Amino acid sequence: MNQRTPLIAGNWKMYKTVGQATDAARRLVAAGGGVTHTEVMIAPAFTALSAVSAVLADSDIYMGAQNMFWASEGAFTGEISASMLTDVGCRHVIIGHSERRHLFGESDDLIARKVKAALDADLIPVLCVGETESERETKKTFSILDKQVESGLKDLIPEAGREPVIAYEPVWAIGTGKTAQPEQVGEVHSFLRDLIARRFGEALAGAIRILYGGSVKPENISALMSLTDVDGALVGGASLDPEIFTRIINF
Ligand code: 13P
């Protein structure tokens, strides 16, 4: 039995206006606000962060952002800095989501700079990694993950209590309804923990939380959470409805 507190996180992606987001946050606080067996985090769109933060203020539910830029400020039209996120109440920030990597061309290098900037600002980065379907089919899964983790955490100085979070999200399982099989998830998560142990030592490997993401729903969360190296989930579509997300939280 490990000592890691699970984290169930909802990535709301580009959904919900401010009114819809605050309404969902209110319903989530009412239904799932008092849980103690897991930490809970939601990541609304930038425009709703401030308003959702006010709704979550007296609850145990954490708030994260879905992206950020690495510079602290400057002429970077359209970007958001880490301090802007802490200022509106974010504790976490999702970095390197596959949609950022594949739709917006984010490189491992850019992602590494963002992870460092998040840690420097006392935000907890949720570093997303994962292989595409063709990479899995051509047996490149582990080399891809190795590269994404090595690069993403290259500037990390392990410090107790300030561990980043890793989210393994196989690209082929995101939004497709195709959840990875428990054996596939277990195999990758233990690979990732071994990689962290070799690179940063056993202390960080024992403390770091590795989440699974990709078509997580109430029907599959318990099987996923029963795997030794799965410390939670990063949920997309099924996190948008507070009742469904609450069922996942109460796995
Ligand atoms: P789905 O749960 O909709 O497959 O999305 C997963 C995801 O991308 C979470 O970040």
Set down the secondary structure blueprint.
Blueprint: E1 7-11, H1 18-32, E2 39-43, H2 49-56, E3 62-65, H3 82-87, E4 92-95, H4 98-103, H5 108-120, E5 124-129, H6 133-137, H7 141-152, E6 165-168, H8 182-200, H9 202-207, E7 209-213, H10 221-225, E8 232-235, H11 242-249
Parallel strand pairs: 1-2, 1-8, 2-3, 3-4, 4-5, 5-6, 6-7, 7-8
The chain binds 1,3-dihydroxyacetonephosphate.
How does this model look, in words?
The protein is an alpha/beta fold and 251 residues long. It has one domain: Aldolase class I (TIM Barrel, Alpha-Beta Barrel). Strand 1, helix 1 and strand 2 form a beta-alpha-beta unit. Helix 1 runs parallel beside helix 11, helix 5 crosses helix 7 and helix 7 crosses helix 8. It is globular. The structure holds 1,3-dihydroxyacetonephosphate. 1,3-dihydroxyacetonephosphate (13P) binds next to strand 8.
